[in-house]
Amino acid sequence: MLELNFSPFPVLHTQRLLLREMITADATELFFLRSDPKVLQHIGREPAKSITEVEEFITKRIEARLANEAIMWGIALADKPATMIGSICYWNIQPDNYRAEIGYNLHPDHWGKGIITEAIREVVKYGFAMMKLHSIEARTNPANIASGLALEKAGFIKEGYLREEFFFKGQFFDSVIYSRLEKDIADA
Fold first, then answer.
1. Where would you tag: which of 71, 88, 104, 172 has the fewest CB atoms within 10 A of its CB?
2. Per DSSP, which regions of 48-150 are E strands?
3. DSSP per-residue letters across 124-175
């Protein structure tokens, strides 16, 4: 079984990005990411209603990390580390199965630049090397073509299609499941 330890917080670096701990000072940027209709169009989540709600969300993410239940990084450009432009996380961690789900979002000003693929690749490396995961899963709305492409560029394989998997605002939605195995790490 996995024995996770996210302390101290694992700061990750790529050529262009800094993946760092989210703090309450990031609440304004995170509020945008959790309330903007364009960002939420494929997510199936109610928009955040206030900065206070987002500050509470950040506090809960910190508590989950300290309890080694989940981890969320704020994505920032390396040359602008104080400004969060997105987030990426491991959640739905299954220690008995050595498996976790990855989730992410990004400010629309940064879409189409390969930033999410770069962040996914770094977080996948961390997941296999440091968390000792065997497999990583991601679920996307089939209409979110850009997310599927980012996952495929990061070495994920489309594994399945769940019809009407979740219910939101009076409607059922489908999901596409992607996965990545540790032995696939050399392929991406």
1. 172
2. 71-77, 80-94, 99-106, 135-140
3. HHHHHHTS--SEEEEEE-TT-HHHHHHHHHTT-EEEEEEEEEEEETTEEEEE
